[in-house]
Automatic annotation (TrEMBL):
PANTHER family: BLL2462 PROTEIN. The lineage of its organism: Bacteria, Pseudomonadati, Pseudomonadota, Alphaproteobacteria, Hyphomicrobiales. InterPro entries: Class_I_gatase-like. Keywords: Membrane, Transmembrane, Transmembrane helix. This is Glutamine amidotransferase domain-containing protein.
Length: 695
């Protein structure tokens, strides 16, 4: 109980002063001159003043508040190394038991490092968790904080934290731990496909520089070399980027005997492969309305170097004009089709027919070019059905369909076949979802028989319109109409000619995104997303191998024709291996080379400065410690409540501050001049004064 006296005046203070100051002066003058009855007059005046001031006796009933103590438990992935998790659990149980003995402490247990957010799992942020714990606590009620961690804390301040209370850290792990890790020093984000890319890396060991170690270099899961690295020294590395798009370069070293973990014995670099300009040879058999459609499209693509020839004057037109006066440039047939044919990524014959411009032997070279990995596109017109068709040359070995000699001049809407709805070249073409398709009509189809490969678009009377085929290591495409320019000119609203033509060209040049059978995966946050591109109706589930070696099956569900997707909520940061049928893929979940694994050796250094700045301490939990009392398999210090000005740590104890704060529960109020007692005292004082004045 707290006792006090309070005044509750019956009149305002100005009025009280106006009335009593003159009377008080008169009473004091009477006392000074020792007039008769002055003492009684002074006492009566004081009694009247006390009555008007209305003194009240207060008795407060208060309840003491508890100090808030934060118990921060590190549950990051580095705590799973060795017996750290066991030490953490034993220390947590022991501290909770000891803190429960003290009624003046409000203990708040917070487990940090288990968030699903990737950015909160890649770093150990204990001070962020501590700040959130004390956010609603007044500074005077903060009793202190105890952290159970391996010491690898990535948000530790350089000095004192933002609270005035002891901070104690109990370090898991053991002294003199041994570990070796590898990291990239310089890893460019981009590289040219098929060209060497220079990188640097370093192998680091807690034992300092040592003997050279073997470093395995893998690109997209395939080992490409084994390098010899000197521990502690920056090493140069040159790798060749095989594919356009995302490539994963991985470095790995063997686990050393006695090493803490091999989780950081791997380093990852993601490199986006960029193709050098693709070289395309476009040969137009004659000028026609759609000739410039292909040219404009290919010229607008910054990644394409185009060589375009148009046959302006066929050899059979003998009018006596010298050839050097007709040709804008001589057609270098031998240079293009013999000497430099391998330099081209794609050859396009646009309404081309055999007229002895190319020697018959050169068609064999073109067929051989396709068999060995080249790409050929036939943009067919009526010439393909005629007597001079290139199908009547040795090139026929590379063609997916032979002409019937029929040219169908009939209006039709180009439509996707069932295969075309799933094929990446034609899947989802703008306007293809409606019936009829939301694009203009064409008016000519070239008839073919016994088509090979995949018919992805059909024309008049459901005849093949677009064929895609593989020949040996190369690819061949055949567009059996010369009316695509109608889309480019906006006839009847036009159509997606840019989208279609570009996809055809890039599929022929083996763009990975346009492969019919493709498995890709990507990490978004802590979610692994899997995408299967296929021509089949059901590719089956995907098999995932986590960084720790655990196998997981992920069901793939159809999201659109030819596309199946699946996802897996993960808890591990690292490289995942995904398989489906004969296809495999790699994906990295979480930030590359996360700080959580960059250094996993337990340490006291990072928390020493903030702990000492608050009067706290840092000590190890290992049983080999000579301080504290054993609780299970760890050595825990004793806990002592201390005042705010007292020391907060000792050799075998840690202190937590108590608070003087309290809450008011009830107030007892007794007016001293209230009721008949106050009236009686006042009348007695005035009556005594009156009696004395009457004598």
């Amino acid at each position: 109980m707290n006792w006090s006296i309070s005044f509750e005046p019956l009149v305002s203070w100005p009025l009280f002063g106006l009335l009593f100051v003159p009377l008080l002066l008169l009473a004091l003058v009477g006392l000074w001159f020792r007039q008769r009855g002055s003492a009684l007059r002074f006492i009566a005046l004081l009694a009247l003043a006390a009555a008007l001031l209305n003194p009240v006796f207060l008795a407060e009933e208060r309840e003491a508040l508890k100090s808030v103590v934060a118990l921060i438990v590190d549950r990051s992935q580095s705590q799973d190394i060795g017996d750290r998790a066991k030490q953490t659990d034993e220390a947590l149980a022991g501290l909770q038991q000891r803190l429960a003995r003290f009624k003046q402490f409000d203990v708040r247990v917070v487990e940090a490092g288990k968030s699903e957010a990737a950015d909160e799992r890649t770093e150990t942020r204990l001070f962020s968790a501590l700040e959130g714990t004390f956010r609603d606590v007044p500074p005077s009620r903060i009793g202190g904080a105890i952290m159970i961690t391996d010491g690898e804390v990535h948000d530790a301040p350089a000095g004192a934290p933002e609270f005035n209370a002891p901070l104690h850290a109990l370090i898991t792990g053991n002294e003199h731990e041994k570990d070796r890790r590898i990291r990239f020093e310089n890893a460019p984000r981009f590289g040219l496909v098929g060209k060497p890319l220079d990188m640097t890396y370093r192998v680091i060991s807690t034992e300092g520089d040592g003997a050279p170690v073997d470093v395995r270099v893998s690109v997209n899961g395939e080992q490409v070399s084994v390098e010899r690295a000197t521990v502690g020294q920056p090493m140069k590395l040159s790798v060749t980027i095989p594919n356009a798009g995302r490539n994963i370069v991985q470095l790995g070293i063997d686990r050393e005997p006695g090493e803490l973990t091999d989780a950081n014995n791997r380093a990852i670099a993601l490199v986006d492969g960029i193709r050098e300009n693709l070289r395309v040879l476009l040969v137009s058999g004659e000028p026609h309305a759609g000739e410039r459609t292909w040219r404009n499209l290919l010229k607008s693509d910054a990644s394409v170097d185009l060589v375009h020839f148009t046959i302006l004057r066929p050899p059979e037109k003998q009018d006596g004009t010298p050839i050097n006066e007709l040709s804008l440039i001589a057609f270098p047939t031998r240079e293009l089709f013999v000497e430099k044919i391998k330099d081209f990524d794609l050859i396009i014959f646009d309404r081309y027919q055999h007229r002895d411009v190319l020697p018959i032997l050169y068609y064999d070279y073109i067929s051989e070019y396709v068999e060995k990995g080249g790409a050929l596109l036939i943009a067919a017109g009526p010439e393909y059905a005629g007597e001079n068709s290139i199908a009547r040359t040795p090139l026929n070995a590379a063609l997916p369909a032979m002409p019937t000699g029929e040219v169908v001049d009939k209006a039709f809407y180009p439509r996707l076949t069932d295969l075309g709805q799933r094929h990446p070249v034609t899947r989802g073409l703008d306007g293809s979802a409606s019936e009829p398709p939301h694009w203009s009509r064409w008016f000519r189809t070239i008839g073919v028989k016994n088509p090979e490969g995949e018919v992805v678009m059909k024309g008049a009377d459901d005849r093949p319109l677009l064929l895609l085929d593989r020949k040996g290591e190369g690819r061949v495409g055949m567009l059996l109409s010369d009316q695509g320019w109608l889309w480019a000119r906006g006839f009847e609203g036009g159509g997606p000619h840019v989208q279609l033509y570009r996809r055809i060209a890039h599929w022929l040049m083996k763009e990975p995104e346009l492969e019919e059978e493709r498995l890709t995966a990507d990490g978004r946050g802590m979610m692994l997303e899997i995408r299967r591109q296929t021509m089949s109706d059901d590719p089956g589930p995907a098999q995932v191998i986590t960084p720790s070696g655990k196998a997981v099956t992920v069901k793939l569900e159809k999201s659109e024709p030819g596309i199946f997707t699946g996802s897996l909520q993960t808890s591990e940061i690292g490289l995942y291996q995904i398989g489906n049928g004969d296809l495999t893929a790699l994906a990295h979940v979480g930030p590359i080379n996360a700080p959580e694994f960059s250094d996993v050796v337990s340490t006291e250094d990072r928390l020493k400065a903030p702990a000492e700045a608050t009067g706290g301490s840092v000590r190890r939990l290992a049983p080999s410690s000579t301080l504290g009392n054993l609780a299970g398999g760890v050595a825990l210090p004793s806990i002592v409540p201390v005042r705010s000005s007292a020391a907060a740590s000792g050799d075998d104890w840690i202190g937590l501050r108590t608070t003087d704060d309290s809450t008011l529960k009830a107030v007892s109020r007794v007016p001293l001049f209230g009721g008949f007692l106050g009236l009686g005292l006042l009348l007695l004082a005035i009556g005594s004064m009156w009696y004395r004045e009457g004598r």
